[in-house]
Design goal:
binds guanosine-5'-diphosphate, binds 6-O-phosphoryl inosine monophosphate, 12 helices, binds magnesium ion, globular, alpha/beta
Length: 428
């Protein structure tokens, strides 16, 4: 089964990095298809613990090619720091890491705009990662963005930067009461990035096409999750890219019919960072307990993550919109000491019972309808087959499968690369 899209099934941080690192031992190529360094994909393997923001999570497998696709937005300093970290471990990146010429660049002024707009919201910010994500995608859509390929075309670049500096300066001085941008400063930054990133920048289209032609095993690595997708998420509490596998088609250059599997990644519970509705959020002891046991603190911003029970309505909605063929349920082990565990199977909105995700304002008012299941109260960390799990844990997983309507192929029982149960014949 050569091409698998790895897609967040909840509000992000589901364990996509771990899933990709685990599956990449069998993959010829991993392509990141959306988002930027708002991502924090944690990987724990024989080299240590890493939080990757931009590098595809297959980077630790030296025989796997890694591609940053056109749908990704690149902060050069963050990327270069990650490359240096991986190289320090003795893992080469030259000749196996490729950045697409079409990927857009994040400039310091994008980050500043993100910060200033969040500050302008006063007491009700969106809670972005302040990495300049919406400003860079806004520039992309407005067709004034700078792409990695532009770094290699200096005369063209200078002209673009002069226009951008003039237009953005009007905004910075007029609206933000901030100092103007200098085209020369932007150009110097670009020249530095061109020197250091140049060897990695290429048209990735022929590489990806060749991999498809040769029927190579490919993983398409998504950022964030469906509930924060620009179109299908809880707008405006979303990111500015497409987190769905359709985003992988556009953002990696893969025709839809070539995606053979869509692996939705969920946790056994729900977490979110940033503002917006989260119906199953637990404010109190149980939420704190999940946060402590699951170490639920943001990989990018260190913010405590909001924690709550598994939201079966949101996960089913995600499965429908994204077309999951398989589901991964991570962090089952976090419930090892729980006496009782809940799953939301519907929402109540006034007199109505809902089985789908409503408009954002209504989502903020729904009350989850829970089913309660008994815990298992034994460690699951060493389980490697479904039958190694206690019967209550199997019943919990089985119920998630029914509620979401997708077969569970992977169960996480710890943060390490091999702390996983493959639970479907033929997977991976
Ligand atoms: P991502 O953004 O989807 O890659 O997820 P994050 O890396 O932000 O957050 C997932 C966290 O859960 C990381 O700290 C992982 O190391 C950890 N993790 C992933 N799978 C498991 C699991 O099955 N059990 C435990 N205990 N931790 C896990
Ligand atoms: P990974 O890939 C969790 C959240 C932010 C905010 C909203 C918009 O690790 O799952 P943005 O900076 O994108 O404009 O913020 O999305 N957010 C994430 N939450 N994991 C992420 O990435 C996230 N990337 C953005 O907290 O609510
Ligand atoms: Mg994360």
């Amino acid at each position: 089964m050569p091409v698998t899209a790895i897609v967040g099934a909840q509000w992000g941080d589901e364990g996509k990095g771990k899933v990709v690192d685990t599956l990449a031992s069998r993959a010829d190529m991993v392509v990141r298809y959306n988002g930027g360094n708002n991502a924090g994909h944690t990987i724990q393997n024989e080299h240590g613990t890493f939080r990757l923001h931009l590098l595809p999570s297959g980077i630790f497998h030296a025989a796997t090619e890694c591609v940053i696709g056109p749908g990704v937005v690149v902060n050069p300093a963050v990327l270069l720091a990650e490359v240096a970290e991986v190289e320090r471990l003795g893992i080469p990146t030259a000749g196996r890491l490729w950045l697409d010429t079409r990927s857009h660049l994040i400039f310091p002024h994008h980050i500043l705009m993100d910060e200033l707009e969040e500050a302008a919201r006063g007491g009700s910010p969106h809670g972005t990662t302040k990495q300049g994500i919406w400003p860079v995608y806004a520039d992309k859509a407005a067709r004034v963005g700078i792409r990695l390929g532009d770094l290699l075309e200096e005369s063209h670049l200078r002209e673009q930067l002069e226009f951008i500096a003039a237009r953005k300066s009007a905004l910075f001085e007029g609206v933000y009461r901030h100092e103007p941008l200098e085209a020369e400063t932007l150009l110097r930054a670009c020249q530095g990035w061109a020197r250091r990133l140049g060897p990695y920048i290429t048209d990735t289209h022929p590489l990806v096409q060749e991999a498809l032609r040769a029927d190579r095993t490919m993983l398409l690595e998504g950022q964030l999750g469906v509930m924060r997708d620009l179109d299908w998420g809880l707008y405006p509490f979303v990111t500015s890219s497409t987190t769905l596998p359709g985003g992988a088609c556009a953002g990696a250059g893969i025709p839809p019919h070539r995606i053979t599997r869509v692996l939705g990644v969920a946790k056994a519970y729900t977490t979110a960072v940033g503002a917006g509705p989260m119906p199953t959020e637990l404010r109190g002891e149980t939420g704190d307990r999940i946060r402590e046991l699951g170490q639920e603190f943001g990989a990018t911003t260190q913010r405590p993550r909001r924690c709550g029970w598994f939201d079966g309505v949101a996960a089913r909605f995600a499965a429908e919109v994204a077309g999951f063929t398989h589901l991964a349920v991570m962090k089952l082990d976090i419930f090892d000491t729980f006496e009782r565990i809940r799953i939301a199977v519907a929402y109540r909105l006034g007199e109505k019972t809902l089985h789908t995700v409503p408009h954002t304002a209504s989502m903020a008012r729904v009350e989850p309808v829970y089913e309660e299941l008994p815990g298992w109260r034994v460690p699951t960390h060493d389980a490697r087959r479904l039958l190694d799990l206690p019967v209550e844990a199997r019943a919990f997983v089985r119920r998630i499968e029914e509620v979401v309507g997708v077969p569970i192929a992977m169960i996480g029982v710890g943060p390490g690369r091999s702390d996983v149960i493959f639970s479907q014949e033929g997977f991976p």
